[in-house]
Queue: 4 jobs
Job 1
Amino acid sequence: MRMNSRNRQHTGRHPALKAALLIAGLLIASVAWAALPPPTPAQQQAAADKKAKADAQAAKDKLSLAASMDAVTAHYRTRAAQEGWKTHPAVAVVAAAPAAGAAPITAAGAASPPPAGSQGAGNTTAAGQAGVNPAVKSEKLGTAPPSEDVKKGQTRAQPKNAEPTVQKGTPTDVSKK
């Protein structure tokens, strides 16, 4: 069978060429990485200071966001009470444990107080989380009663000579007679 240029398919570079290019790239990268000198103590200190400033700013931003979320939620809940809108109690948010060696973040900012009769404005700050935390109920953990659709006991075995409850086979169709 004779092939012309239209029937040939271009498969790209040869696999050996691809492998050679990959190995060359890795060698160049390893030489460049090995050529970097270790950071000086001044550079290490500057990097540590920069990280500390970034962490402090992130904590400040997190508290500011939580306070603004609480304020918006409190405003909505007061307006909902005035307008007669149906609201549901706020969901309690459990704070994550701080990382090992890290100081816990506390809310010292101005968080809006929750409106009367609610369980919290949004529970995003430490003050909002200090409210009611309902216990977690779970059937799997055994801290909640089983659902009503759960079997009360084992299914009884049928005797060996009992008729099957489902009749197998094709039923006769009386409409075709």
Note: Confidence is low (pLDDT under 50) at residues 107-123, 127-131.
Job 2
Amino acid sequence: MAPKKKSARASATKKKPVARRPAKPAARQPAKASGQVKRQLVEAFQREHERTRKVLRALPADQSEMRPHPKAKTMRELAFMFVMEQSLLKRMLLGEPGSGMPPAPDRLDTIVELFDRGAGDLIAAIQRVPDSGFEDMVKFPTGPGPNGPTIGDWTKQAFAWFMLADQIHHRGQMSVYLRIAGGRVPAIYGPSGDEPWR
């Protein structure tokens, strides 16, 4: 069967291609409002510090050397990690040289005091970083490597959020220590068995 011919009317009404103007370049996204990154970090660290502080203050002092497994840190050693991470982040943000890893104090109450003091120092450090400085790079391990940890580049902003996430991770770990040690687990993001919402 022969193909149908287009009618003259259809041919006449067929639209001619219209020359299109080049598309406008996409509008640049406005830069983040001045101080937004800094404000978000300060608020997040202040909020999470209070939650971590509640857990640390609930630790039974007479159980400081308790460890739930031979490979695990003692309660005292784990508590000191919060202090060390605050100090590390402060140094990274301000470009200060490292000073090694001091031994954990013998007393849990001393560690909690250091954590409280370190929280204030860290907030002050965040506020000292200029807005543009949060995109500066720092070196820190990114994962395992053949001869030890692989060192990679982090923006100061990404590193700060990573360290806050690690604090939250270890706080959850500490809440398990606290339960095993017979302490009262405080409400953190929601009610706990010892602090129900009612």
Note: The first helix runs from residue 8 to 13.
Job 3
Amino acid sequence: MLRRTILQGLALSAVLAAPALAQDALPLALKGYDPVAYFTDGKPTPGTTEYEITFDGQRYRFASARHRDLFKASPDKYAPQFGGLCAMNLSRGVKRESDPHNWVISNGNLYVFAGETGQQNFTKDAEATAARAAAQFKALKTATQ
């Protein structure tokens, strides 16, 4: 009887822990930097696990409850374009992780880049580059579905 109770307790613990484990397996957006801070503070700011939420298959961290709540109210406004992939590389059809220290807000959207060169090149023709990257991102998402 005691053994059964212990086993039932262990099974229940595993079931209750499963959602947390599944969430931890999701990718960490912007390497843990707060997406709202780019807009409000004008700089990359590390987030904390205390203010972490999931959006669009990624975990986002925030520097404060206020930033987390702003994001929750309007995630499409604050989330980086293209799931945080390098916008410049993506415009060329290359999927590459970005560095959250290389970023631009253009037309109200956050774009991140693998390096300074991509950031600089993007700003030369942001609208056209963003359109090419959007087309590539759409094709990439379609191919993986």
Note: Residues 9-21 have pLDDT under 50 and may be disordered.
Job 4
Amino acid sequence: MEDDKLGLTQEQWKRFQAYTQGYGEQDENGVDLSLLRANLKLTPTERIEKMRRSLVLVQEVRHAGIVAGLSGRSQRTDTK
């Protein structure tokens, strides 16, 4: 069975591999183990605070997109 190359051409697959390899220690699935270890060194409270700061950033970016008129939210019509 041939490896799944995500529907990419050989050249695109080579570029994809070059872009996604070599960032920290990776397992066979490409998961960066160094990031996992760094997060596990944090206390649960520190992890929650890190997640909270990330959420605040996402909310700020989302709000900026809405203010700039880049959000599709105002154009969407929900049909529930």
Note: The two ends are 44 Å apart (CA to CA).
